[in-house]
Amino acid sequence: MSYILAIESSCDDTSAAVINEFKILSNVIASQKVHQKYGGVVPEWASRAHQKNIIPVVDTAIKEAGIQKQDISAIAFTRGPGLLGSLLVGVSFAKSFAMALDIPLIDVNHLEAHVLAHFIKDTPETKTPSLPFLCLLVSGGNTQLIYVTSPYDMEIIGKTIDDAAGETFDKVAKILSLPYPGGPHIDKLAKTGNINALHFAESNMPNYDYSFSGVKTSILYTLRDKLKGNPLFLEENINDICASVQHRVVSMLLKKMKKAAKDLKVRDIAIAGGVSANSYLREKLIEMGKENNWNVFIPPFAYTTDNAAMVAVAGQYKYLRKDFTTLDKTAYAR
């Protein structure tokens, strides 16, 4: 019986998890509130907070799993991509922990971990995608369409050439003076808004690629023009603005996903990443799945944002292949 300890520290959440045979025994996350008043993550403060949080977070994860540190068979860690200072805290801790216990190290790609979160077996009845499947990975820093043929073989068939979809939500939230991170607040306000109140430009990229820089510019100019006629436009129409922005971004995401799914003839489609928590994206993906007779896989909310459980399941697959790393490997930002 193998127990794998996983560490995630790619951005501003310090997380540790323990997995056994694809079942998560613990998944502890310490979030950092210090960044909220600045509307984004301050890298130096993030790395300092990781140094403060990582020992108590790991200790709690081991205790909640009901094991001793001597029971751990290997330690998996996020090697990248992410904020370099934040990553180095997790990488350094993992190396020290592995050396102290004389156990193997497993390096994990953060984005692959998001995709593999769909293979966490919380219960024996948990359904997982059939291979091959198509996964839309969408977050504040990444937007990718990934064709998954095995847990060890993933191909990025489409991606944003500039900004990520989640970044659009965060930028709009800043314009509307909403707290950071902006996505959840836009999602909440959009529920009572009119998706057709405002119309924003849609990019037309070839193949399966995305571009959100033009959409952000369209939103900025539209709101600027509305404010000229009514200085209170943002306050008076905030729900409609959020609904219209959300509709444009989600429609762009799913349009490419639908094309890819039909071209590749896949029956299983999934979403992953922080923006996969968006209720409108989930709703529209389910609708698209029903219309096309596809099997839709949406991760539990606990596995959408950055967390060590997804790193743990990625580590579990590598452990089975004895795909270990060495102490000379360091973090990578991109």
Secondary structure elements and their pairing?
Elements: E1 3-8, E2 14-20, E3 23-30, H1 43-64, E4 72-80, H2 84-101, E5 105-109, H3 110-116, E6 133-138, E7 143-150, E8 153-159, H4 165-175, H5 182-190, H6 213-229, H7 233-236, H8 238-264, E9 268-272, H9 279-292, E10 295-297, H10 308-320
Parallel strand pairs: 1-4, 4-5, 6-9, 9-10
Antiparallel strand pairs: 1-2, 2-3, 6-7, 7-8
Helix pairs in contact: 1-2, 3-10, 4-5, 4-6, 4-8, 5-8, 8-9
From the structure above, extract its key features.
43% helix; Nucleotidyltransferase, domain 5; alpha/beta; five-stranded mixed beta sheet; 10 strands; globular
Task: Describe this entry's structure for a reader.
This protein has 334 residues and is of the alpha/beta class. It has two domains: 137 residues, Nucleotidyltransferase, domain 5; 167 residues, Nucleotidyltransferase, domain 5, CATH 3.30.420.40. It contains ten helices and ten strands. It has a five-stranded mixed beta sheet, sandwiched between helices. Strands 8-7-6-9-10 form a five-stranded mixed beta sheet, with helices on both faces. Helix 4 packs across helix 5, helix 4 runs parallel beside helix 6 and helix 8 packs parallel to helix 9. The model has no long low-confidence stretch (mean pLDDT 93).
